Fold each of these.
Amino acid sequence: MIENRFSRHVQKLAYIVLAALLLGVLSLSSVSAQDGTDVLIWSLGYSGDYNEALVERFNEAHDDVNIVYEDVLTGTFTENNQKVRIALENEAGPHVLGGVDVGANLQALVSTGQVKDLTEYYRASGLIDRIPPNLLSQVTVEGRIYAIPQNMESVGIFYNKDAFAELELEVPGTFEEYVGVLEAVKEAGYYGYTMGLAGGWPSALMASMFMYSSAGSEYIDVLSGIQPWPDCDNCLDGLNAFYGMVANGYANPEPLGIDYDQSLDLFYQGINVMVLNGPWFIDASASAEPDFEIGFFYLPPVNPNTDIMTLGGIGGSLIVAEYADVDAAFKVVEWLTSEEVAVQALRDVSQLPAFTIDVPEDIAPLTYQIASETAANVDKIGFWPVTYLPPKVFGDMNQIVQGMIGGMLTPEELLDEMQETHSAYLAEN
Amino acid sequence: MAQMLSAPRKRIAGPRFRIDLMPYLFILPAVVIYVIFNLGPVLASFFLSFFKWDLLSPTTEFAGFDHYDFILNDDRFWNALGHNFIFLGLAVVIPVSLGLFLAVFIYEIRRGRVFFRAALFLPAIFSGVVIAYVWKWIYHPFAGVLNPTLELVGLGAFTQSWLGNPKIALYSTFIAYTWASFGYSMVIFLAGLQDISTDIFDAARVDGANFRQKLFHITIPCLYDVFTFVITLRIFTAMGVFGVIYILTGGGPFYASDVIDIYVFRMIGNFEMGWATAAATVNTVIVVCLSTGFIKWREWRSWTS
């Protein structure tokens, strides 16, 4: 009897709990519906922490659209591209994605119909007048615009200001002066140029920096397959200058024995005094807390008559997935490309927005210097080689440059090897 | 007669063919998992190697034997395959010999057997990625421990860029691979040793056999099947080596330590699925031929002796 009464009580209690749960779920779903449309974002093109801060600010300021942020792009460059392409193809990925690499990657996304044509949005929002034409050309495929360049980058030499002061060195203005600085640094017992190429990365970028700086837009023709590699004499001069960093003892020894991160440690420890890098290095070096001040200058051109000053270009672009809700997605894009957010990005993560090249003065001096110089030289920045080269050829280029640095290939042979690799790829595709 | 004709026929007694399904049901889950995760992908890979596909497009284009033609005419494929064979040659000798030597050592000692067994097996349970990063720092030309240690013991002439020198980069990665893999061989040999009857060793001792005689005339012959298993395992791992090399050198410098799996990975990373699967298929065929050929040879030797 007692057992029966007890079980009835338990049954009643279970019904009450179930009813409460059901009500809770219903009320939650109605709240979510009131919150507006969810826009799934995997990356806004900045660091993870800054992405999260941006999302929080957006969600606080908007009731009709809610950003759902997933920090899933945590792999390497190639892995992230694979994740994005597979997710978009299966309509299981983000609605808006920032930090996308343009070039072959964007073309592949466009060819499979995975990204929205933004041409009309560009016209309606006036964005078309705010982005420099050479950047716009990088996100245009067959006359239609498919991405929004988020930021501009330019690569240069970060140097140990304290070591320069100790050795009474001036920032070089010409390549001859630069070599003079390297000689002085070498004589003082430091290493000048930081190089860590084990694993390949970033061999192709470093060699390209010197080839751009010697051949200028001729190098772009080479990368695009318009001009054969061995016919580019200026490229050869650039390669010789790059090889000279190792052959003349200006770089740290054993560049093929250490990887990129290990080579940066040499700079932070004050063993090397110069490192070729981009604006993202400002934050990275601050985290490493070196006990010296860091300065920046552009690598003086190997060929003073070159029309391209340095390597860089678009660091990342925004795209909208083909399956996204257009109104909600564009609301996010509109906010991200607003003056307020763009300038804040420059203050917080040292990235010069592509859609507002006015650099505010109330930012850290090094950030201000790099951003101002980038803004002033927009038309003299050569884009990343992978923008023109298919990723496979770019990957091979990393290995081939290693071959030259390791003495297995001469600079001339490197150009021949690149021609063979590039031609073979183009013939198969 | 009519009665006889109309009488119901008796069934002629004979062998009854009843299939007992129970054993098959027991192995069914394993078979299903094997088909889905092993055989299926291998067959799909073989099938895909005849199509041009970028991994994402819903459409594929039949390419016939074009991908095989490209792969087999690519110097970098043969370069990578050659490195796999060097790796294989070393892998069936060094980690196996080291494993055997240490297993015999542990088997012979009376005190500290558990400690040595655990200590020597420890590297085998670490993740390959961790091992590769540890060795990356060991080999570091400025901050690594290898070069200073060589100098300390008077072998300064041998210090160098272990991963940057194209002549030795592959062998440097092999050392890391050996460190990670000899423990498995050791444990398998140890298990094999414990299966050998102690009576045989006792009899040999009574007959005055020394350590070398016991090793070559008792231990190694008695471990014949264990050797077959351990070497077959080495064939698989050496032909499929990836993680250690990828992290240490990425196949460089200038393809000096490239192996087939890194070659395939590069192709997949660039969405060249046709080339990647063709290369993977060729590698699979080689591994199957090598391992099957080796096992058959061992069986034949076992029967003939």
Note: The longest strand of chain A covers residues 37-44.
Amino acid sequence: MRTKYLLGISCVALMAAATASVKADPVRIGLMATLSGPASVLGIQVRNGFMLGVKELGGKLGGQPTTITIVDDQFKPDVAVARVKDLLQRDHVDIVTGIVFSNILMAVEKPVLAAGKLLISANAGPSPLAGAACSPLYFSTSFQNDTVHMAMADYANAEGIKKVVLIMPNYQAGKDAAAGFKHDFKGKIVDEIYTPLGQMDFSSELTKVASEKPDAIYTFMPGGMGVALVKQYHQSALVGKVKLLSGDTVDETSLPGIQDAALGTISASHWAPNMDNPQNKIFVASYEKAYGAPPSFYAAQGYDAAKLIDGALRKTGGKVNIEALRKAMDGVPFKSVRGAFKFNNNGFPIENFYQVSIIKRPDGKFVTQAGAKVMDMAKDIYAGACKLPPR
Amino acid sequence: MDFALLAVQILNGLDLGFILFLVASGLTLVFGVMDFINLAHGVQYMLGAYFAAALIAWSGSFWLGLVLGAAASLAMGLVLEWTVFRHLARAGHLEQVLATFALILIFTDGVSMIFGAGALSINLPASLAQSVPLTHGFSYPLWRLIIIAAGLGVALLLWALIAKTRLGMLVRAGSTHPQTVQALGVDIDRLFLMVFAFGAMLAGFAGTMAGALTGVEPTMGDSVLILAFVVIVVGGVGSVRGALIAALLIGLVDTLGRAFATDIMGLFLSRSSAASAGPALASMLIYVLMALVLAVRPSGLFASGD
């Protein structure tokens, strides 16, 4: 209900703003996220984070009247293409942002970039867009898919883990996760198991792992799949024999479902609620106040996307000129809630990655907590294949 | 091949099979007895899991919550029958599909609004959340064994009810000769109410049992519903015995396919092509099985009324 309330407030604010200053150059933004189905918990966080950023700025990004059209991609690439065409042709948006899943981003990047509009991913970071298919109009406030898994491979190396079985969902980001982990991991990959996206019963896979006797499982299971896998791992006899390492699996979106079983799991991330900078303290406090639950990195990325657009508009003096906005964004015109932040030549961030553990707060809520830095101002491995000059 | 591994994978298959049986038995009775297509059966699976999750959290006791959750599922089944299904019993299949599809949308979104779109947890007591050692260094999660035992128990109970009681006789007669049953003075609406509510309770119970493994979320019923329809088509509409055999068959084929398809493909293909062909083949297997059964026996393995 609180979400609806907030949206209601901002819509009213936007309409009031639009009618008050008819002559000003309005900014039109399309926010696409997965807002229905089992994966919607991620999309809702991205949307909440973005709208929180907009609300903080009084509903006016860059001080300009702003219209935000929110669309649901339903986690279906064909629906996403139809919705993004609506955004471009009917709503005449200048910027498309949001986008949680890599298969959705791969479906919509062409229509958006071909129309000469700005595309700001607030989560998905597929490898093709980081490499040869990079675009000057593309920005990311998240990370390239592989990077977090490279950080986890570095952690596995440091822990002396020699044999690993990969369990990944069978889609672009699952393959990127496997590629990222394999790129840095020095031990042996005993087996690679790919499961259909959305599979919730991992009995067969965990039995297979038990027969293969690796040192650790490495997995990337966003949303409900992660809840299911971690819970089933904890009910199995693998605990104490085979470690469970994961990236983008155990976070504030899945912790309410995993609860105590998550304690002791290690992952890596570029952000956690305890990042020590003033803008993050404001963000975390106001997110919890608005939505009654701790934010995840998905919300942080959505919030950063709003602040990036705001900063770029302030640089251009409120002018909605794609070329001017692009140049302004290159200069990172905002303070990210993760602290240090730069754009690489392919539009992906150069940022730190931290080892992340899970803690239970005194109020009973579970949150991630960043510890030691595992990668310092990391760049993704595909940027070399991108022919664009440095930003 | 390692027989201990095969044995554990067969247990996994039976585990999935019994979950499917709990869902499909109610569905096949409603479909068979009343000729009613109930797409909202998956929603009852999901609601049962939410009832149990909420009641376990509220009562603080796992077993009390489980029993209250089943009671709530039964009550929900009665309410839905009384408010919606009763009025559609004599409508065509298209009306039934439309109305029950609407129920899916209403309940899935309603539950997301109340509980959030993320997964909730049904926390097993520590004594149940462990695994028991089997042979050759393999252990098996205790809760999955309990699911198998509960599925067997429900199968026996249903067999006793249908084969040995007067109510069961009416259900059997109603599935083949509804007009005759009605002409003999049986209140077929009341029969439907009971069958429907009992089926809803079984679905809710299945959702609770599975939810303790996978977490509880608003769309958890959708994929189960599709599998349950595959089960009743393979087993024969209206036949509980068919539902049992078909559910176990589908559970085994799906699980063993996921477990071994990649390795088997690896015998013919390179490692990387096997890794992509294996999962693709595994996810098709149950539909291939359904097509084969329908080609040989168009009305399913056990046609209604056997």
Note: The domain at 9-119+141-296 of chain B is CATH 1.10.3470 (ABC transporter involved in vitamin B12 uptake, BtuC).
